[in-house]
Amino acid sequence: MDPGKVALRKAALAARAALTPAIRQSAGAALAETGPPAIIRLVPAARILAGYVALRDELDPAPLLAALAASGFRLALPRMTADGLAFHAHEIGDALEKSAFGVAEPPADTPIVAPDVILTPLVAFDRRGNRLGYGKGYYDRAFAAHPQATGIGLAFAAQEVPMVPAEPHDRPLAAILTEAGLVLP
Predict the structure, then answer these.
(1) Of 32, 66, 79, 148, which sits most exposed with the smallest number of CB within 10 A?
(2) Is residue 60 predicted with pLDDT exceeding 80?
């Protein structure tokens, strides 16, 4: 593993963990307000949007997903498989189950869909659209499996760094949505 990415990941995770509950709550509310119009402008023909359920101290996309559903988007959530992530149809209020890793995900028998937009959590991002994840490659493989999907990162503005080291398999995001607004590479 790239030692530069390891050090950057550690520093970025510490910065994210230091954010106050008030900042976290206001960030979620800001995304719910500014996110739907920004996503509609960026990807006007999108109908199916894949979100995620926040883990630990990630930016919680639940308010944004509710606002997107109210704007007419069909939602999907990821489920971990042996091959990576499969996106399953999801409606607000649907039951979720815990994976072996403790991640809330749709039941396996929920229909699989092909998203037009994939919202992705991240550890750090830069103004070129590069993202640093947790290092397991789940979203890299999801973007490769769904090349038609527009990748949009969700992050706190504090997660921006000057440069994220990019490797050949890394696909830059089309945008990053933070509580401070939309970052377009």
Answers:
(1) 148
(2) yes
Please choose, from the candidates 87, 86, 43, the residue with its C-alpha nearest in 3D space to the C-alpha of residue 68: 43
Name the pLDDT band for 168 (thresholds 50, 70, 90): confident
Q: Which of 58, 42, 61 shows the shortest CA–CA distance to 50?
A: 61
Quickly tell me which residue has 């409606």 as its tokens: 91
**What is the DSSP secondary structure assignment for residue 105, as one 8-state letter?**
E
Residues 6+ apart with CB under 8 A from 82: none
Tokens of 146: 């769904």
- Is 90 exceeded by the pLDDT of residue 21? yes
**Beta strands 150-154 and 117-121: pairing type?**
parallel
pLDDT at residue 135 is higher than 90: no
- Sequence-distant contacts of 107-113: CB under 8 A, at least 24 apart: 108/79, 110/79, 112/86, 112/87, 112/88, 113/48, 113/50, 113/74, 113/76, 113/87, 113/88, 113/89
pLDDT given for residue 174 in this prediction: 97
Decide if 50 contacts 76 (C-beta within 8 A).
yes
Is the per-residue pLDDT at 1 higher than 60? no
Assess if CATH 3.40.50.10420 describes domain 3-183: yes
One-letter amino acid at 47 equals: R
